[in-house]
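Data card: per-record layout.
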Amino acid sequence: MQELLGIPSPLLFGQLLIGLINGAFYALLSLGLAVIFGVLNVINFAHGALYMMGAFVAWLLLTYLGIGYWPALVVAPLIVGAVGILIERTMLSRLYDLDHLYGLLFTFGLALIIEGTFINFYGVSGQPYAPPQVLTGGYNLGFMFLPAYRGWVIVASLLVCFGTWLLIERTRLGSYLRAAVERPDLVRAFGINVPLMMTLTYGFGVALAGFAGVLAAPLYTVSPIMGQNLIIVVFAIVVIGGLGSILGSIVTGLGIGLIEGLTRTFYPEASSTVVFVIMAIVLIIRPHGLFGRPRE
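The structure for this 296-residue chain is written out next.
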């Protein structure tokens, strides 16, 4: 196993590991976007800024309150989710009866405001955030070295993604959410508070972005611009998987991450564009995405 296809195996598996980690973040972020779009029909362009906010909240909790990584992994997504609920109740809810373009423009402007505010206070150089002591070091797997924290990121992301899929696809609450998309009037007839459900859905979707931000904080410097390039790729992944498809977001996010890793190994020049090439091919062959359903 010293070489595979002429590539040293440590290099190949190392790139696959990086791709899997990126795929874990793609899956978490695209999952939040899919949940929000599936229930609210809103393309949430502020998702990258809220991902960044999750990382910054973790850094601020540690820097000013001494609250470490493990509590921040719970507290930061709750704070970001609360910010999302406030945004939805005070502003976004007023746009539901308008064209989708208004929601897109609003969330795009909101992203610029959030990022600009953090840049004004903290600049763009980035802040370091150390991983917890228990997750330092790594494991020698023989064919590659696996850093402990990177392994934790993959496991935590998969657990949250799978748990969210179970919640939406296999529980009564999930059935109410799916029904609210198709027939909100019928759901109201059963005594369900649809506006509250939509508010909590948006809060949950952006809390997933906040959770991804906390996971990312020890891997990358905590910077106000850390979500700018990432969110473009995530939107492409959502389109490939199918707008509103939970399973499509998870599978496509992980798959694109691995494809990027392989591309970096065999043809590095195309690693930043391969996702958009795949998106173009999918849109030509299957315009509603790999896992999406045609909208009537």
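Known properties of this structure: The beta strands are 3-4, 7-8, 138-140, 145-147. The first strand starts at residue 3 and ends at 4.

See the next section for split statistics.
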